[in-house]
Write a structure and sequence with these properties.
By secondary structure, this protein is an alpha/beta fold. 31% of the residues lie in helices and 22% in strands.
């Protein structure tokens, strides 16, 4: 993305309860899930922010920054988004948008990047999510920095669910015609990881 006014943000601050261990570090093939996500998005963004409450990668690349949630207690993805927005403000970055990616969905459709760039140049809406068929992907989002104040206030009012907050604010859904049902396979359990291993073998 040439004129990049979007900060790519990987949300990796979850508790991984169903997985049992930190799933962002789980190996899929010869790479961790977080590395799969980084590899996919770094071709399209000049800078990547990872929101995690652990040092989950060896931070060798200058264009990758890792921060913790701005509020303690692992309160969910909305706090991760707010943390990214606050980081932009604190560091006087020129980004107007935050694009969020989960750390556990390694096969997502590359068409997302085209849509992110296209929507970031418009002022039609301040929040966009992706969907395939009837399924809405709430962590694959494009969030205007103009939402920072209302997001912070609503988090103080105990808003935690992304979908509930987004419905309150208003959003636009971007339809992705996924070729396969498991394109947005979300790895929450060890069984999901096994499915992903089988898919990776097919791709290779």
């Amino acid at each position: 993305m040439g004129e990049n006014n979007i900060l790519a943000t990987i949300l990796a601050g979850g508790k991984s309860r169903r997985f049992g261990t930190d799933k962002s570090l789980a190996k899929l093939g010869n790479k961790s899930l977080i590395d799969h996500t980084i590899s996919k998005i770094e071709k399209n963004f000049s800078e990547i922010l990872i929101v995690s409450n652990k040092q989950i990668i060896d931070q060798k690349k200058k264009n990758i920054n890792i921060i913790e949630d701005c509020l303690p207690g692992q309160l969910g993805p909305l706090v991760g988004v707010l943390s990214a927005m606050k980081w932009i403000k604190k560091n006087s970055k020129n980004y107007n948008w935050v694009a969020t990616f989960p750390c556990d969905t390694p096969f997502f459709d590359d068409k997302i990047f085209f849509h992110l760039q296209k929507k970031s140049k418009k002022k039609d809406n301040k929040l966009y999510f992706f969907k395939t068929g009837e399924k809405r992907h709430n962590i694959f989002g494009l969030w205007s920095l103009e939402l920072i104040n209302i997001l912070e206030e609503d988090i103080k009012k105990n808003f935690r669910k992304v979908e509930t907050w987004a419905n309150k604010i208003g959003l636009e859904l971007i339809e992705i015609d996924a070729k396969q049902d498991d394109t947005f396979l979300n790895i929450n359990t060890k069984d999901d990881l096994e499915k992903a291993e089988n898919k990776l073998k097919v791709i290779k």
